[in-house]
Specification:
This protein has eight helices and seven strands, in the order αβαββαβαβαβαααβ. The protein is of the alpha/beta class and 265 residues long. Helix 6 packs across helix 7. It comes from Pedobacter antarcticus 4BY.
Amino acid sequence: MSNQQNQDRDLEGKIALVTGGTKGIGKAIANRLARAGAKVIVTARNSPVEADSDHHFIAADLSLPADVIKVAGQINELFGGVDILVNNMGANTYPGGGFGTLTDDDWDQAFQVNLLSSVRLDRALLPKMLQQKSGVIIHISSTSGQFPIWESTMAYSSAKAALNAYSKALADETGPQGVRVLTVSPGLTKTEAMEVFLKDLAKKSGITVDEMTQTLFERVGGVPLGRMAEPEETAELVNFLVSPKASYITGANYFIDGGNFPVVK
């Protein structure tokens, strides 16, 4: 086997969990880690339409504490823990229109899904990583965490900003014990969820989806590369960060946004 082929399989023997791993960015990450040699576990609320027999699927709604306990229990029983945890679960399904449209339930759900699901799962699976003095945790955040759009992402952006702060604090705590923690913040990405989001905004604004897409590009300050990201592009970044090639990287937040972020990060 060539050196290049060995590098492509540098996750051989590793156990990886990808939450929200049946669609979009999560699915792309799960497939990429599997190609690198990892045994991949995926969670989602519903079984995938096209199940990948190479992945072990666990049905769960990780916004519910009981489901986090269920997932962690199954993983510890079947696999003895994980070496890689990618907290990809997240959603921006909350009413737009600013503070007056958001109820306490909307705020609570935004934080349950986009922050506390990761906190609870880390708490359940991190002890085994600390015991073996190795492991990598990736929190999939969003550029919205530092670029909130009041009309459409207020609750979501607030929860992602909290996730960013938590992720950095956890990295500082676990780094001396051999566990790396990183954040990846995708920008506009071509997923099913993004399509639904754009259609909903377009309908409310009385314009076409193409017009809404252009409006969104302008609202975030433009994207120099002129397009949305493909999920596979974020998956490549995550694959690098969990690999031995990134062994000296922890605590950082990586933006993958086509250059759209309007300030020096």
